[in-house]
Amino acid sequence: MASTSIFSPKFTPPSKQLSILSSTSTKSLISFFSHLPSTPNPNVNNCKRDFPISKVASVPYQPINQEYLEEEFSGHGVTFEGIGEICVAKMELENGSTASLMLPNGLITSYKAHMWHKGTLELLHTSVSEAEDEDEALIEGGTSLALSFASEEDQHSWSPTSWSLHGVSGNPNDSIKIEMISNDSEGKIRLKHIVTLKQDMLSSELMVSNLKSSPLQMLGGFMSHITVSTPDAIYALGLDRSNFFDRQPIDTEYTIIPPRYGDRSQPGYGQVYGKMTLQALGSTLRSLNKNYADVGRRNSYQSEEDGEEGEEDDSYKQLTEEMSRIYTSAPRVFTFLDRGKRNSITVGRSGFEELYLMSPGSVHEFYSKYAYILVGKTALLKPIMVAPGDEWIGSFFIHNPNSE
Asked: Do you know which Gene3D superfamilies this protein is assigned to (predicted)?
């Protein structure tokens, strides 16, 4: 397997890679949309933007054998549907809560939580639109893993782009667990990604095993798009007295960033930020490799365009304005309140020290593609170090306190 990087520009996946609907019919396209949250005008073309960054190697995804997955892993409340070269795995509990994820890219596209009124409410925000050739789908949002690994003995960094289904367990009465694995080409970096659906919670756990003879550096983390009525109606509770750095928006393969983000001429414009790709952050790891003895002293990524350090002074922070911020001392658990939906959720993390919070601002239409808050459980300012032979574990969860 060639060395590749997830920190690439957003793109329309070619047919030899993530060909979502290549060689499929319009019926398949409609079937694919049915697994994802509803978005306005799903048939409107929405081309990806190009970014002037260095090219990286590309690893083709292997087509998914749906029949094998059904025979080997069906039951436990999980069903599979093959669409083109991918497969959608759906987890469903008897109380009505569901979660969907895509294989082989491991993207969690939907989490519908059981509510007190006996219905369900979508908590993740995923945008789906057709590409120009009308045979492929562009997918953004949801919850994704954006990771880059490097060590002293490597010439290039490695990022997981393909996940294999390793196991399914649990039952529809209580909880359902899906395990996925991904290894580098030499088998010296072993990743396990465990997604668990409970009656009032969706959690995701990452296990990193370092089989190399030198320390392993990990950069990135979980990126979760939380659906909202509008950022103007969203309040983050419990972030007061948290230290933060203003940063440019982190642009990974699946993150959503409005095309006019940071445009001063926009009505309601708040703060100015450019776009900083994780490819640029990934270059930090390569620089660290060249001066590995100085890793302990170089513990943050610096940019002249980044904002200043500050301390959050609002315990009831309204996310009306554009913002892109990395909190270095935020609580492990805090709450989002959506007054528009009269709903609240709790998000939490372990293992990751940093909290990335990005709001597209409230200059967009209600319930549109840009009605979301991006929450990241990350290591962006300071890479996580995994010693030779050690294992590191990090996780996040979305808790729905409105089930009863």
From this structure: 2.70.98.10
